[in-house]
Amino acid sequence: MRRVPARLRQIGAHGDRPGYFSHPKGIAIDGEGHLYVVDAHFEAVQIFRTDGTVLLSFGEEGTGPGQFWLPAGIHIDVNDRIWIADSYNRRIQVFDYRPEVEPTP
Question: Could you list the residue range(s) of the whole structural domain that residue 71 is in?
Fold first, then answer.
């Protein structure tokens, strides 16, 4: 008898709003458990909490820093640096993860 894995959770669906995807091309998880999803159609990266809540989105179409043209993949290293394969711009962009800091009273 073949076992079928049970789906544990779903994050996002097809669409064009925050938390939705058009052409997801890669996923990665940082040291705090945040999920990063690269979307080639929207030229952006979305960051989610473990419960699926959208934390942040960054990127736009273009050739400058922080801009992408058909991003194709993502990797997060042990120092939480975010490496994005920016395919049509023929480059890798690297970003530093900066965790949220609680304001001092």
Answer: 24-96
Q: Is the Cβ–Cβ distance between 43 and 67 less than 8 Å? A: yes
How far out from the chain centre does Cα 103 lie?
A: 26
Q: Of the ranges 9-23, 31-45, 89-103, which is most confident? A: 31-45
How many angstroms separate the CA atoms of 7 and 54, rounded?
20
Q: 43 in the Ramachandran plot: left (φ > 0), alpha (ψ -120 to 50) or beta?
A: left
**Domain for residue 5, yes or no?**
no
- Per-residue pLDDT of 67-78, as tens digits, reads 999 999 999 999
For strands 60-61 and 67-68, give the pairing: parallel
List own/partner pairs for 55-58 with CB under 8 A and 24 or more apart.
57/18, 58/95
* pTM recorded for the entire structure: 0.84
